[in-house]
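Here is one chain, start to finish.
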Amino acid sequence: MEQVALFFMTYIFVFILYRFFIIRKTKEKKQKKKRFIKFKKNKKTRKTKNTKPIEVSLLETKYNLDLEKIDYDKLLLIISLVSSLDITIIITLVLIFNSYIFKVLVGFILTFPVILVSYEFIGRYYKKKGMTKND
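Its structure:
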């Protein structure tokens, strides 16, 4: 019972941190970019950085998703829920081992497969909903 409580507390903590530091900053950059484009008139300006998180870029390129059809805020929410779950699963599995070497090895070995499998589910979900580009 203690492990389950620790899992849920870790999940909520990681979710709040992820939403605060990653998603909120992405939304702020997107709003600044809109204001910047709105107010620039006949001035040479430097290019603004891409405001999409790397997770959105991965889903867009790998699964050919059309961001015009997708509710962007809902996509960011799904990404934050799934990424928080991934991090929590990896942390929970790493805490099972006592040896520091095993913790590091398990962390490195599990990180990429867990992330790829979870984003595979997100990509298939949006493909099933018909949110892909029609080329």
